[in-house]
Design goal:
The strands form two sheets. Strands 1-2-4-3-5-6-9-10 form an eight-stranded mixed sheet. Strands 7-8 form a two-stranded antiparallel sheet. The protein has about 290 residues and is of the alpha/beta class. It is built from seven helices and ten strands.
Length: about 290
């Protein structure tokens, strides 16, 4: 398969992945670095979705290394392998994850793989925050997957009902009382810090998403910093961040050279894809479309 970034390789030798630990201000984050067996074509930092641990992306990161790319996966503070103590005692916010942790992960990758172009692959939350990062200008390619400033009325059908329940006063009160989000109860799979839910709720129930927090919990972004390539990937049957919200994100990267892709299950012999399962091993048929 020929693409703007060359021909995808098959079964390229892969070095064993290795643990990586790095600091993001007061937090100590745990990641894994997947290296190809030869100098990498690019070094990719993979910023994960909210509530999705880095181990979920392992198969995809291994596949990237087989194509000749280095890839860093990691967990946000107080989550997954980066968790310290019970999530109830966490003060982490979505701003911490999207600004400080993501920026620190890129810096850690640059230190580990200093001579390769830097790419970012952002899943959901992972693609939203680059304009706030000090290293945004050093990113030569950004691929966002199911990522966009979604508003509560964007969700179709039953997804809108589920979102309304998740952001409801009753859920907010329960999270306040418990001190965290019990992930299994809400179908997330993993528990989340209360502060992450609080900001997430505010952004998703406010038109403009996080724009109202700029100058408060968020610094001033440099919208023009990322001047490389941006590929915005939407999933046709994604009820959480539908394509319209994905295309809206492209306005946040005005100087990037932009392309769009919609993944449709039927085009790839799949029954459904959805918001999370883009990176599942059983949907690996999608991966070359995302990368190229």
């Amino acid at each position: 398969m020929t693409a703007p970034h060359g021909t995808l390789r098959v079964a390229h030798p892969v070095s064993d992945d290795e643990p990586v630990t790095f600091r993001a201000d007061r937090a100590r984050l745990q990641g894994r670095l997947f290296r190809p067996g030869a100098p990498p074509r690019a070094a990719i930092v993979l910023h994960g979705a909210t509530g999705v641990p880095q181990r979920y992306y392992r198969a995809f990161a291994t596949w990237l290394a087989e194509q000749g790319y280095a890839c860093l996966t990691y967990d946000y503070r107080d989550f997954g392998a980066s968790a310290v103590g019970h999530v109830r005692v966490s003060n982490a916010t979505m701003s911490d994850w999207g600004l400080r942790d993501q920026a620190a992960a890129q810096a850690a990758l640059e230190a580990q793989v200093p001579d390769a172009p830097i790419w970012v692959i952002g899943h959901s939350l992972g693609g939203l925050m680059l304009p706030f990062h000090p290293g945004a200008a050093r990113v030569s390619r950004l691929i966002t997957v199911a990522s966009g400033p979604v508003y509560s009325s964007d969700h179709p059908g039953m997804a809108r009902v589920a979102a309304a329940a998740f952001w409801s006063p009753a859920t907010r009160a329960a999270v306040r009382a418990l001190g965290f989000v019990p992930g299994k109860l809400f179908g997330l799979g993993a528990d989340l810090p209360r502060g992450v839910y609080t900001e997430w709720r505010r952004w998703c129930t406010t038109r403009g998403f996080y724009l109202g927090d700029i100058g408060q919990s968020l610094p001033m972004p440099d919208w023009a910093a990322m001047q490389g390539e941006m590929k915005a990937v939407a999933v046709a049957d994604d009820g959480l961040v539908p394509p319209a919200a994905v295309w809206r994100l492209m306005q946040h990267y005005p100087e990037a050279r932009k392309t769009q892709l919609t993944l449709r299950p039927g085009d790839h012999g799949l029954d459904r894809i959805g918001h999370i399962k883009v990176f599942s091993r059983k949907n690996s048929v999608l991966w070359p479309q995302i990368l190229t």
